[in-house]
Amino acid sequence: SWIIDNRTMPKKDKRLSASRIKTLQGCSWLYWAKYHLKLPDKTNTGALRGTICHLVLEMILNKTRTKHYDEMVLAGTIKACPSVYRLVKKHVNAFNYDFFGQGHKSIKGEEEFLLENKDPEYKVLGYMDKSIEFKGNKYKIVDYKSSKSKFTDKELETNLQAMIYSLANKKKNKKAKSLVEFLFLKFARAASQT
Predict the structure, then answer these.
(1) Closest alpha carbon to 61 in 113, 98, 100, 90
(2) pTM assigned to the model
(3) What is the torsional sign of CA 12, 163, 152, 44?
(4) Stretches in the chain below the pLDDT threshold 70
(5) Half-sphere exposure at residue 102, Cβ-oriented, CA atoms within 13 angstroms
(6) Which residues contact 140 (CB under 8 A, 6 or more apart)?
(7) Rounded distance, CA 152 to CA 170, Å?
């Protein structure tokens, strides 16, 4: 058996994320294996697809690349941009959901945040895929999902990730009114959940 004396071990700065908390809630052994033992995690196709989609959708937000967005939307196909087509053949639906936030004041892609609290002590590190600001301190935070299924009503109502995003946005702007939208990239219809 293994005995670990916490008094002799150096205290590490542990930062949580919504996905780490969800893993811990689902299976404490999986959490321990992934984040403490750092056992290799074989990448699944969903995770790989999500990484590719996040990369492309973040790049399209760059002002120097919006021409690619215009080309694809005008042509009605991602084939208008061969490099994007090669990466996200089946995920054009992400562009069909008000991608730039019509009437927006500002828009940011892949924004890192850190929530820290003393009592109770915690640190949560996360990234917002896309944050769209509108007049009146209204925000729409979009999170891209590459999973095979959407959230149930209960999962959506008690979604930890949405709560963390709203809290992070509130920390940045106390008057912020946030709406979190999950955009499921595998679904051509009804892909959005708020």
Answers:
(1) 100
(2) 0.60
(3) negative
(4) 1-14, 37-54, 86-96, 188
(5) 4
(6) 101, 131, 132, 134, 178, 179, 181
(7) 26
Q: Cβ neighbours of residue 68 under 8 Å, at least 6 residues apart? A: 60, 81, 84
Which residue do the tokens 């007049």 mark?
Answer: 135
Give the C-alpha separation, 162 to 140, whole Å: 11
Residue type, 14: K
Pairing, β 177-184 against β 138-145: parallel
- For residue 77, how many C-alpha atoms fall within 13 Å in the half-sphere facing its CB? 5
Question: Do 128 and 18 touch, CB atoms closer than 8 A?
Answer: no
DSSP code, position 178? E
> What one-character DSSP code corresponds to residue 36?
I
Tell me, what's the pLDDT at 29?
Answer: 76
Contact between 65 and 45 (Cβ < 8 Å): no
Tokens 């054009």 belong to 92
Residue 80: CB atoms within 10 Å = 16
Give the distance from CA 113 to its chain's centroid: 12
Element (H, E) at 108: strand 106-117
User: Residue 187 has what pLDDT?
Assistant: 74
Half-sphere exposure in the Cβ direction for 92 (13 Å, CA): 19
pLDDT at 180: 95
For residue 169, the model assigns a pLDDT of 93
